[in-house]
Design brief:
Layout lengths: L1 E6 L7 E6 L4 H12 L6 E7 L12 E8 L14 E5 L10 E6 L11 H15 L9 H12 E12 L9 H10 L2 E7 L11 E7 L7 E6 L5 E3 L20 E3 L7 H4 E2 L1 H6 L7 E5 L14 H9 L6 E3 L8 H8 L9 H4 L15 E4 L1 E2 L6 E3 L5 E2 L3 E5 L6 H10 L8 E3 L2 E3 L2 H18 L5
Parallel strand pairs: 3-4, 3-6, 4-5, 6-7, 8-10, 14-19
Antiparallel strand pairs: 1-2, 7-9, 8-9, 10-11, 12-20, 13-15, 14-15, 16-18, 16-20, 17-22, 21-22
Helix pairs in contact: 2-3
């Protein structure tokens, strides 16, 4: 597979930056071995979207293979086996359909890096053919997954290597709902160990079988030796995955995305080097990873010790307001044009005026390794940025009680591993936990501080 990073730019609306992320040969062999358990006979026509060097054509189980790859200059020459064909073009411009199977490893590109007009055009096509609305915040592989469903016959098979997160992420829900409605069978094989160098996302092999109408979903683990065993549902445990909920009386939101942490957030050393005063910045938290678990209250002393003195990104520039000092104006003028072309900056006018939000009472680090995330009461008034979520509550709610509840909650068994042992709580999942706490607090009369 060739991974294409697409970014909007005032100079070029649709830019492709290429980098190779190839599927290991042993994973390709495993893929075909798993596919043969679902299709005993040789497939007549197979389509590979985002084919890269067409390595899925090797050891294949087909009469004809058509691979589609947008990269016109492969990293190395491609030697195709008999019956295989490689087409150098955009997969969404490839017109043939009616394939027995659509296979491969589609590109994984964040929604921020997909050009808006292209995304809207393809989303409209998907809605016309499949009748589903993608949210606009889905990664590129979801569009390819939809295309695979569109290109296969009514009894066809879709077999792809994609992030395991698709089985639970809200952005993929329209696709899951379609599959459930059509009662297609799904088998998901989650890799217990990393299969791509330098890629954090947990991968899986997913099969969507249109020929089976039982609507059965099965989950399996792929062990390091590439043998498989049955997995206990999505979570791999007796617990269900946390549901998603809307905001309630107590609610969470993602940390703000001002337009690139390298520009908008500074360490103490960077603040001094830029000539900015304390009046030009506000405290912020971009990560709680190095904060000791024993710290429950983010005081001035704790902030200085664990953020300022530790050279963490701890200062957010105050560029969103109406007034900016001459020092801050000089700093903003020093930012290169390239660094101003992030997704957020391109959607802000002027480029440095980010969204201003209230200061949260609690800071919650969305990622964690064991048990649950770092959680701290925000007594210093730091802004939550990036992967640090902000939790907001009315004054009458007991913040210390809320913090204790979240700290004791077993998130580990209730969320899907984002990458290997790294887990991540989605905002909507945190809102469901906060809703549970509100109900318990109301029953126990603990609303008052």
């Amino acid at each position: 597979m060739v991974l294409h990073n697409m970014r909007s730019s005032p100079r070029k609306a649709y830019e492709l930056r290429e980098s190779q992320v190839s599927t290991p040969p042993e994973v390709v062999s495993l893929f075909w071995r798993l596919l043969r358990t679902r299709r005993k006979k040789s497939l007549s026509k197979v389509l590979d979207l985002g084919a890269g060097d067409a390595r899925f054509a090797v050891k294949g189980h087909y009469n004809r293979y058509d691979g589609v790859e947008i990269d016109k200059q492969p990293a190395k020459p491609v030697t195709l086996p008999t019956g295989a064909h490689l087409h150098r073009m955009c997969a969404f411009r490839y017109e043939r359909g009616g394939f027995d199977a659509c296979i491969g490893n589609p590109p994984y590109v964040r929604h921020h890096d997909i050009e808006t007009r292209w995304r809207r055009r393809i989303a409209a096509r998907i809605k016309s053919e499949l009748g589903i609305d993608l949210s606009g915040i889905g990664n590129l592989y979801l569009y390819f997954l939809c295309l695979a469903l569109m290109k296969t016959t009514d009894i066809g098979l879709v077999g792809v290597v994609i992030p395991f997160e698709w089985v639970s992420r809200p952005s993929a829900k329209p696709i899951r709902d379609l599959i459930i409605e059509r009662k297609w069978d799904v088998a998901v094989f989650r890799f217990r160990s990393a299969i791509f160098d330098g890629v954090l996302t947990t991968a899986c092999v997913t099969f969507i079988d249109k020929s089976c109408k039982s609507g059965q979903w099965t989950y399996h683990d792929v062990l390091p030796d590439l043998t498989t065993k049955t997995r206990n549902g999505i979570s791999g445990s007796r617990f269900k995955i946390l549901s998603h909920a809307k905001r309630g009386d107590v609610w969470a939101r993602r940390g703000i995305s001002p337009g690139g942490q390298a520009t908008f957030t500074l360490t103490e050393e960077e603040r001094l080097a830029a000539g900015l005063w304390k009046s030009d910045v506000i405290p912020c938290a971009t990560s709680l990873r190095r904060l000791p678990a024993s710290v429950k209250l983010l005081t001035k002393a704790a902030f200085k010790r664990h953020f300022v003195d530790a050279e963490e990104k701890c200062w957010l520039i105050k560029s969103a307001g109406q007034k900016r000092s001459s020092r801050l104006r000089r700093y903003l003028n020093s930012i290169s044009q390239t660094d101003r072309e992030t997704y957020a900056c391109l959607h802000q006018k002027p480029w440095y005026r980010y969204e201003q939000t209230p200061i949260p009472q609690v800071l919650f680090h969305s990622g964690f390794m064991k048990r649950g995330p770092k959680i701290v009461i925000n007594s210093i008034g730091a802004q939550a940025v990036g992967s640090v979520y902000g939790v907001f509550a009315p004054p009458e709610f007991a913040i210390r009680s809320l913090r204790s509840y979240l700290a004791q909650y077993n998130f580990e068994q209730r969320v899907v591993a984002h990458a290997h042992t790294l887990r991540k709580v989605e905002v909507a999942q945190l809102n469901s936990v906060l809703s549970q706490w509100c109900k318990k607090a109301s029953r126990n009369g603990r609303e008052a501080t």
